[in-house]
Amino acid sequence: MHGERIPLMKVKSIRENLREKDMLKDYLEKYPYRLTHELLYTQQDSGVTFEPMRNYLDLAYVGIISIGTPPQEFKVIFDTGSADMWVPSIYCTSQACAKHNTFNPLRSSTFVASGQPINLAYGTGKMSGFLGYDTVKIGSLVDVNQAFGLSLKEPGKFMEYTAFDGIVGLSYPTLSVKGAIPVFDNLWNQGLISENLFAFYLSSKGQKGSVVMFGGVDPSYYTGELHWVPVSKCTYWQISMDSISMNGKVVACHGGCQAIMDTGTSLLIGPHDAILNIQRIIQARPSNTGEYIINCDTVNTLPDVVFTINGVGYPVPASAYIQKGRLGTCFSSFDKGMGHLFTSEVWILGDVFLRLYFTIFDRANNRIGLAKAV
User: Fold this and answer.
1) For burial by CB atoms within 10 Å, which of 45, 153, 173, 175 has the most?
2) Contact 15, 24 (CB under 8 A)
3) Cα separations (Å) of 195 from 2, 199, 231, 300?
């Protein structure tokens, strides 16, 4: 059983769009903490507020879903780093919404309003809206009575430059808005998929070919052995990492650290000092926009950065951690994390890593499977 395959399209990220319009410096100066969202909510008993950080600057893989009866289509990011689903609504007054598909609940015979407001707070303002319920179609899977956010206001002018309309969160339900069961949990609870897992194949071969598969794994997308890693904390898809090394020498994550597998982040993000150390080793230097520039020719000489997880080494070669921009400039794919996650040694392994390694997110066994992507 290969599950339901949803094609993903690689699109230009906000960072690339802004870089080409010479607006990136303006953006990074205004919002040094990135377009992160801190979803403020309280766990029912503990009274603790969690703040998952999102960085929408580099999102690059979109899939198509539909909502309502008859269906209304949206381009979404399937994001393992958050739990909620939201799309722009016709009631949204922000300029960003004018440039995207907006959901019209009045045109859907299956829509049910909840009246519950939701606020996703970003570094640049709030995505505020309300919770509704409707039928969500993902490929041939029909998820009924799915809770999702309808945005009324989207932050900042930079959301105009996104190639996606909304987000479908695939993290653990502990991160979701109170009273909202996440999409994947509903697919499983409603008996729509045969296995309680999903998997991502992010192609490095151009725009097409990437997929997310729900409820089954197609082994033709990976080669060699599949290695399983237990989830260390069931909020994000978080695991324990042994070390990060170059040329056999540990350069970061000394004595172990935590890592999050995140399809909603493009880069390799880590604690400030560790990232600066790696930038120094690969001779990347800060540009006037705050991005790290690297000599394109070093792609042939720089060593792999090896992430050792559960005793297995996962090399990331220079060809993967150096990204080519326009005009012959190259950029480092390592970046410093911001916010509460980075007070401790937490790494985020985004698309740079996931393009190299086919990844299975196994909810049934709370584990992640990694194998070399084809």
Assistant:
1) 175
2) yes
3) 10, 11, 18, 42
- Name 29's Cβ contacts closer than 8 Å, sequence gap at least 6: none
SS3 label, residue 173? helix
Set 58, 84, 134, 262: catalytic member: 262
Q: What is the C-alpha separation between 282 and 275, in angstroms, rounded?
A: 11
Tokens of 24: 């990136």
Name the residue among 369, 78, 366 with its Cα closest to residue 221. 369
Q: By 3-state DSSP, what share of the chain in percent is helix, strand and coil, each rounded to 5?
A: 20, 45, 40
**Set 79, 84, 165, 185: catalytic member:** 79
Whether 262 is catalytic: yes
User: Do residues 199 and 361 make contact, with C-beta atoms less than 8 angstroms apart?
Assistant: yes
pLDDT digits (tens, 9 = 90+) for 122-134: 444 567 889 999 9
Amino acid at 38: E
| Tens-digit pLDDT profile for residues 271-302 | 989 999 999 999 999 988 778 999 999 999 99
Residues in CB range of 335: below 8 A, 6 or more apart: 267, 268, 269, 275, 292
Which H or E element spans position 352?
A: helix 351-354
Percent of the chain having pLDDT more than 70? 80
Check if the beta carbon of residue 239 is closer than 8 Å to that of residue 231: yes
Q: What is the largest CA-CA distance in the chain?
A: 61
C-alpha to C-alpha distance for 262 and 259, rounded to whole angstroms: 9
Selected residue with higher pLDDT from 118 and 300: 300
In the chain, the domains with their CATH numbers are: 4-198 (2.40.70.10), 219-373 (2.40.70.10)
Q: How far apart are CA 99 and CA 158, in angstroms?
A: 11
d(C-alpha 84, C-alpha 39), whole Å: 9
Q: Is 79 a catalytic residue?
A: yes
**What is the C-alpha separation between 40 and 24, in angstroms, rounded?**
28
| 83 vs 149: CA distance, rounded Å | 12
